[in-house]
Amino acid sequence: MQTVLQTLKSAIAPVQIRTWDALPEFQQAQLNRSLIHADRVVWVSPSTIEELSEIVSCAHCNQWRILPCGHASKLHWGGTVDSITLVVSTEKLDRLIEHAQGDLTVTAEAGISFAELQATVGRAGQFCAIDPIFSDQATLGGVIATADTGSLRHRYNSIRDMLLGVTFVRYDGEIVKAGGRVVKNVAGYDLMKLLTGSYGTLGILAQATLRVYPIPPVSRSSILSGDPTALEQATQTLLSSALTPVSVDLLSNSITEALGFTSDLSLVVRFQSIAESVDQQIERLAEVGKTLGLTTFDPADSDLWQRFTDQINSSAQSDSIVCKIGVKPSEAVSVLTQISALLPTAEILIHAGSGIGRLSVKNVRSTQLLQARSLCEASGGYLSVLQASIEFKQQLEVWGYSGNALDLMKRIKAQFDPQTLFSPHRFVGGI
Fold first, then answer.
1. What total of structural domains would you count in the chain?
2. Of 429, 138, 171, whose CA–CA distance to 309 is shortest?
């Protein structure tokens, strides 16, 4: 370790280099959940893109393996990594570069907190159409690296569709730029989509440009709950109608009970627009619910989504096992019902329009989780373990990928990171 420290000090200021004993308790805990032999790593926090480039170049020359991160809120997601020399944090790369209000774009460094970025564009009456988990801790780079879009994806699509340009550092320390700062940009290769959801395996994000949107004048939400068959019909009726919700989420009864609404499976729908449009759409949804014999709740919108976010974050910050799931949207209610029967205490959320969701559960055996994975796969979907103890992750294949793109992904990895320096074994297929 002393050799590593001496080499690094020639590249960046010593204050930006920390060993295990100097790390805060939270970072130590996240590292222990992320990699084997966590106490052997050196944590470095460059303040500029040039310093980041020097650090990666140094690692390249010395064959040091790197685990990139921001504030470490999702550092433990994905596969378990080993033989890491450096944890490279973008926490000090936290500057707002440009907010082009007229062009509806914002450019910032990867380490800026998402909450700060949202507050900044919010002062201009705009917002980033993303609601990731741990939004108060997450960094822009971490949200992109994990493709953590949230419920707003129903209206605005995923973060990969909002990403207009990136700057990242590749395996040998070279700084690479792709895309640009305008919406109608066609410059260069579309590396933005490739880097989104790559979990830091292809390079280290340093800067990004996102599309932003005007804040809608009115926001209202409604909850439908009751019989699963009726709820499934209501969901399909909504999705095939002319209504334009921004969020359509299916929730297990364990979540709605925790929120104090109902003990039934529920559909939470959010509308945002001018007042007249929102009111009419809420009324139309209530008519659908009434026709199908469902119970309707109309809670205060801001209170609902804050409580909703707090509940999801609380589960994910505990010792729960957290999984990302995907199913056919047309079978979302059926799969949710089956998994709830298998794991009665599991908190399950599925975005009804895409079939993507999250499952959080405590005190579960790996065999039970594999059964839940089988239910998702029977619907043409998947179940990937994001958060669990290292011991639990060693009992099963974390990603559970059974598609035909693994060879292509490995070839992309070999092109972007031929020495396997970045986040080794964290991604699908041990990439």
1. 4
2. 138
Instruction: Name the DSSP letter for residue 403.
Output: S
CB atoms within 10 A of CB 5: 13
Rounded to 5 degrees, φ, ψ at 380 are 75, 20
Whether residue 84 contacts residue 66, with contact meaning beta carbons closer than 8 Å, is answered with yes
In contact, 60 and 171? CB cutoff 8 Å: yes
107: alpha, beta or left? (left if phi > 0; alpha if psi -120 to 50): beta
User: Which residues make Cβ contacts (< 8 Å) with residue 291, sequence separation at least 6?
Assistant: none
Whichever domain contains 299, its CATH number is 3.30.70.3450
Q: Kindly state whether residues 129 and 41 are assigned to the same domain.
A: no
Domain residues for the domain of 288 are 217-314
CATH of the domain at 331: 3.30.70.2740
Q: 3-state SS string over 137-148?
A: CCEHHHHHHHCC
302, 339: one domain:
no
CB count within 10 Å of CB 135 equals 19
* Rounded Cα gap, residues 386 and 395, in angstroms: 14
> Concatenated DSSP letters for 50-113?
HHHHHHHHHHHHHT--EEEESSSTTTTSSS-B-S--EEEE-TT---EEEEETTTTEEEEETTSB
Q: Which two tokens mark 354?
A: 């895409």
Would you give per-residue pLDDT tens digits along the chain (431 residues)? 777 888 787 777 776 899 999 999 999 999 999 998 898 999 999 999 999 999 999 999 999 999 999 999 999 999 999 889 999 999 999 999 999 999 999 999 999 999 999 999 999 999 999 999 888 899 999 999 999 999 999 999 999 999 999 999 999 999 999 887 655 554 556 789 999 999 999 999 999 999 999 999 999 999 999 999 999 999 999 999 999 999 999 999 999 888 888 889 999 999 999 999 999 999 999 999 999 999 998 887 777 877 777 777 776 667 889 999 999 999 999 999 999 999 999 999 999 999 999 999 998 999 999 999 999 999 999 999 999 999 999 999 999 988 889 999 999 999 999 999 999 999 999 99
